[in-house]
């Protein structure tokens, strides 16, 4: 668990982070969003003491981080950044194994771990282990950066735009991998992003910052449904907020039992979102879809009226 209590950071006369308080529970993914220069990266870098806070307290698992040696702390916390920070003269495998080697793991265990992570992140060992960062595409380099952050199996991961500057398909693939990793391994993750769709899709806790302060925090749906002010509303998507809400609301929330009427021909997976259901209705020119399970068996239906007529923000079906 990470706790920030009234944490402040000043650079000269400028207060970059102004008395923020935030708790990120174990296994939670917390996304920090806000306009450029609002203090997101500074907040992240104070957690692993790349930047020292000058007011307030930061605790990790109940202990003030000032009690830890900075280097020891950073070996316990994975850190992935947009520019990857890979060592250019080291191979991919050597880059990924950096922290385990610093922690003096036996060589065979480091190799095993590196290969495990490369497989996890879709980087075939034979193809990539001996390559150098300059020989990688941006997306591959970011995967290596994420693998390196995960190498020593840290409980905490700090990620500063780790998927920035990637094409939408690669980015979405990595988002799915991250969510999967988090669900399986219960990592505590603090994630900085400028991409609101990414923040809404990934975050358990969404934190909106403005000029060094936290303006609002909560579950993405809570913020979409009740933004604290016009700034939050506009940052979260302005007039598009309804669609963004549909993009993170699962179909099963609005699903009804199959009606005795004819089974709808068009089908949608039960894991789909309302946004995907709307897109399919639009594409297929239909107002009802059968919701199907993994074996393509209908488990219910969803209708346009069920989605729109009920009013998304009411959170109930009629
Ligand atoms: N090392 C530094 N020295 C002086 N000022 C700094 C330093 N690092 C950050 N700042 C200032 O602190 C403020 C917050 O910066 P920070 O990088 O945390 O913002 P951010 O929200 O991450 O921005 P962006 O979205 O553009 O990355 C900015 O005004 C920035 O200019």
TrEMBL record:
Q: Which residues form the CBS domain?
A: 255-318
GO molecular function, one example?
ATP binding
Give one GO biological process term: quaternary ammonium group transport
Keyword annotations for this protein?
ATP-binding, CBS domain, Nucleotide-binding, Transport
Q: Which residues form the ABC transporter domain?
A: 2-236
Which PROSITE patterns does the UniProt record give? ABC_TRANSPORTER_1 (PS00211), ABC_TRANSPORTER_2 (PS50893), CBS (PS51371)
Record has rRNA processing as a keyword: no
Record's superkingdom?
Bacteria
Is Transport among this UniProt entry's keywords? yes
What family does the database annotate? Belongs to the ABC transporter superfamily.
Q: What is this protein called?
A: ATP-binding cassette domain-containing protein
């Amino acid at each position: 668990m990470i706790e920030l209590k009234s944490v402040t950071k000043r650079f000269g006369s400028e207060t970059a982070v102004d008395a923020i308080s935030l708790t990120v529970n174990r296994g939670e993914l917390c996304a920090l969003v806000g306009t450029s220069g609002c203090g997101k990266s500074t907040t992240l870098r104070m957690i692993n003491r790349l930047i020292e806070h000058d007011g307030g307290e930061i605790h990790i698992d109940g202990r003030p981080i000032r009690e830890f040696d900075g280097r020891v702390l950073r070996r316990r916390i994975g850190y992935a950044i947009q520019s990857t920070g890979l060592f250019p003269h080291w191979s991919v495998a050597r880059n990924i194994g950096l922290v385990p080697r610093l922690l003096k793991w036996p060589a065979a265990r480091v190799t095993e771990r590196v290969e495990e992570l490369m497989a996890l992140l879709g980087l075939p060992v034979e193809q990539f282990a001996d390559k150098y960062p300059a020989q990688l595409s941006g997306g591959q380099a970011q995967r290596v950066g994420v693998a390196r952050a995960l190498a020593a199996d840290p409980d905490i991961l700090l990620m500063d735009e780790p998927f920035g500057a990637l094409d939408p398909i690669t980015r979405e693939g990595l988002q799915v991998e991250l969510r999967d990793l988090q669900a399986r391994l219960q990592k505590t993750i603090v994630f900085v992003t400028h991409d609101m769709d990414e923040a809404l899709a990934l975050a358990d806790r969404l934190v909106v910052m403005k000029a060094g302060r936290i303006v609002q925090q909560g579950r993405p749906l809570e913020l979409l449904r009740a933004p604290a002010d016009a700034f939050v509303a506009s940052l979260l998507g302005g007039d598009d907020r309804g669609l963004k809400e549909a993009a993170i609301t699962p179909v099963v929330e609005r699903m009804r039992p199959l009606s005795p009427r004819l089974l709808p021909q068009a089908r949608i997976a039960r894991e789909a979102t309302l946004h995907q259901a709307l897109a399919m209705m639009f594409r297929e020119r239909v107002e009802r879809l059968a919701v199907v399970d993994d074996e393509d068996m209908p488990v219910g239906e969803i209708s346009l009226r069920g989605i729109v007529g009920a009013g998304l923000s009411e959170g109930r079906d009629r």
